[in-house]
Amino acid sequence: MDTVVTSAGPFIWQHSADLNISALYSNSSASSPQSPPNYGLSYFTMTFGALSNLTALAILAKSYTRFHRRAKTPFLLLAAALLLTDLTGHLVTGGFGLYLHLQKVQRQRAASRVTEPTQAFCKLFGACMVFFGLSPLLLGCAMAVERCLGITQSLQHSAVVTTAHIRLSVLLLFAVALTLAALPLLGVGSYKLQFPGTWCFLPVQGSLSTADVSLVLIFSSLGLVALTVSVFCNTTSGLTLLQARFSNQGLQPTTSRRHGQSSSLQSLDVEMMVQLAVVNVVSWVCWSPFLIYIIISVRHFYRGTTRQYEQPMFLLTLRMASWNQILDPWVYILLRRAVLCRLCGLVRPNRPILTQTSYCTGSERQNIHLR
């Protein structure tokens, strides 16, 4: 959903024009045989997303072996959890979406009646969509909070944010997402086949029960709160870094050691500011339409103004959210210090801004490494 509905999106969206929405909700509808659809873009998107996450995991593993002390920092643990969740969600939801679509196309070729998948399959698919959609948002929020504490409250950060606490926090966040995803499996709420019949999720349109409304609003609210907290923490961190950078510019180092420390701080500041800005933009652009649409749809339900044309719009917002897990690892891959060094060298060859070999050793920076 940083996730997630990731690979399901391409399969869902690519061939939506070939599917009859009336067959989705009618047991008596029939479909005529159709020509085989082109799966090229869908396969490419799923493969590209998986390779992106694997590449980011490889880079993260390399940093573990290169910086033994930093390998145990809280942020690296959170980053590893996020990338593993992205990769797993990408493959699981994408596999479910592909299976459901192939089953639908097979029925259409046989000119048989288009029926909905089994309720058990839809429940499992929907639970995966909720879990892998919410978990990356919560993990991204935890990463933003950890960075904010490390920058603004370095002393408290080193004492409070330990490896054990981070592992416990990750388990707690997973438990929250898993609980919400499992409630419909226990009879609280339900999962529903969504337009165009290739994915399952919490019902947001049509006749909604109190449990359905509660669950979908909890999902949307948790996601929006996580995004808002992330923006607030990242903005606070960015302002603190800018303030520190401007303060350092007013100081003239008198020794080579001071000059090295100033260069290291400046290098880390530039790296962090670029990555924080991109992470914020990607998360909000990909996820906010999907989460906000859920709230608007529930509002329309209470007003009795639900419209059929809103279903393709819901599909579009899902596709946008699905790309977050594909783009998220590339923020870590492309916006590393080594890459930024080359970019700055091309833009300003006579005045290097980033120093690839310099690393900050102060207590206020040692536990910070941006994805």
TrEMBL record:
<feature type="transmembrane region" description="Helical">
    <location>
        <begin position="213"/>
        <end position="233"/>
    </location>
</feature>
<keyword id="KW-0325">Glycoprotein</keyword>
<keyword id="KW-0472">Membrane</keyword>
<feature type="transmembrane region" description="Helical">
    <location>
        <begin position="41"/>
        <end position="61"/>
    </location>
</feature>
<dbReference type="GO" id="GO:0004960">
    <property type="term" value="F:thromboxane receptor activity"/>
</dbReference>
<dbReference type="GO" id="GO:0004958">
    <property type="term" value="F:prostaglandin F receptor activity"/>
</dbReference>
<keyword id="KW-0297">G-protein coupled receptor</keyword>
<dbReference type="InterPro" id="IPR000276">
    <property type="entry name" value="GPCR_Rhodpsn"/>
</dbReference>
<dbReference type="InterPro" id="IPR001105">
    <property type="entry name" value="Thbox_rcpt"/>
</dbReference>
<feature type="domain" description="G-protein coupled receptors family 1 profile">
    <location>
        <begin position="52"/>
        <end position="332"/>
    </location>
</feature>
<feature type="transmembrane region" description="Helical">
    <location>
        <begin position="73"/>
        <end position="100"/>
    </location>
</feature>
<keyword id="KW-0675">Receptor</keyword>
<keyword id="KW-1003">Cell membrane</keyword>
<keyword id="KW-1015">Disulfide bond</keyword>
<keyword id="KW-0807">Transducer</keyword>
<feature type="transmembrane region" description="Helical">
    <location>
        <begin position="276"/>
        <end position="296"/>
    </location>
</feature>
<keyword id="KW-0812">Transmembrane</keyword>
<dbReference type="GO" id="GO:0005886">
    <property type="term" value="C:plasma membrane"/>
</dbReference>
<dbReference type="Pfam" id="PF00001">
    <property type="entry name" value="7tm_1"/>
</dbReference>
<feature type="transmembrane region" description="Helical">
    <location>
        <begin position="166"/>
        <end position="193"/>
    </location>
</feature>
<dbReference type="GO" id="GO:0006954">
    <property type="term" value="P:inflammatory response"/>
</dbReference>
<feature type="transmembrane region" description="Helical">
    <location>
        <begin position="124"/>
        <end position="145"/>
    </location>
</feature>
<keyword id="KW-0597">Phosphoprotein</keyword>
<dbReference type="GO" id="GO:0007204">
    <property type="term" value="P:positive regulation of cytosolic calcium ion concentration"/>
</dbReference>
<dbReference type="InterPro" id="IPR008365">
    <property type="entry name" value="Prostanoid_rcpt"/>
</dbReference>
<dbReference type="GO" id="GO:0004957">
    <property type="term" value="F:prostaglandin E receptor activity"/>
</dbReference>
<keyword id="KW-1133">Transmembrane helix</keyword>
<dbReference type="GO" id="GO:0007189">
    <property type="term" value="P:adenylate cyclase-activating G protein-coupled receptor signaling pathway"/>
</dbReference>
<protein>
    <recommendedName>
        <fullName>Thromboxane A2 receptor</fullName>
    </recommendedName>
</protein>
<dbReference type="InterPro" id="IPR017452">
    <property type="entry name" value="GPCR_Rhodpsn_7TM"/>
</dbReference>
